[in-house]
Amino acid sequence: MNSFPKLYADIPTIGELSAEDAACVVRELDLASAGETRTGQPKIGAGATRSWFGTRPYEYSNQTIGFLEFVNATTENHVSIQSLGNVSPDSSLKGAAIDIRLDRLRIYDYPGRGKHQIVVQFKANHELSGTDSPEPVVFNQAFDVNEDDAAGVIGYPIFNGLVVGKRGVSFQLCTVNARNETDEQLLNALKSESVKAGLNLLATSQPVLKPFVDVGRGLVESLLKRNRNVKVQELFLGLDFDDAPLAAPMRCGNYIVVQVKESQNFDWNGWVFDKHRWAFVAKDNPTEILPYNYFVFRVALSPGS
Question: From CA 127, how far away is CA 167, in angstroms rounded?
């Protein structure tokens, strides 16, 4: 499978910063510095905690991924979540056109207080007919999300008609916490109606893609170089057709990307999707909502594929 360099490799996520540099970012965002006494009680979840003195959830550099099969509306309320190691790839998707949608963006704990302006960037490889190598495509969108809340999005179009290669498809995803007031005009542009339609690859020719990609990269790179804007989550995901324990299978369904600390030994068996509440909850305690930052994207066949 073709891959590409890390998104903005010279700009680390907040979790990759040194403790001193991270504390400076936190102070810039009007948060208490590391080790400062806080009032109130921390939120504690199953195997997770919003640490009051140690590492905060937005500082985790690891991501774990769960998978939800498409289910019939008549099935029971709680739907099991599978780890990627238990999912088999669907080889019928080789060469198929797929749609990518954002179904959930949850901001459990991000740097700063109150309402966050979150820029989400998706980058993928698009297999164009008659070419020897895939074409990179980029899509950005900005969302206003309150702390410990979710963006009001379900089925938000990202890529329409992304063509899967013979070896699969590569994704890069990152979230940026934008707090610089001078970026308001740029962020409003990302919220425009034309952007909300997603990137229609079925109707976009190859010469048009490159400048669109360059502009998309430039927008986020500009944001990241401004004071008080910081990259929080980042993931490279190569979905392929290898039926291997450590592979990420290419399949239609929902992929749940959760920012966790690797040493917490996160287990998807302890969590389910509650269809009535539209939330990920603890299997043994359905009143407890998944206490992490996460986003969910959907892979589905494009109409007519």
Answer: 11
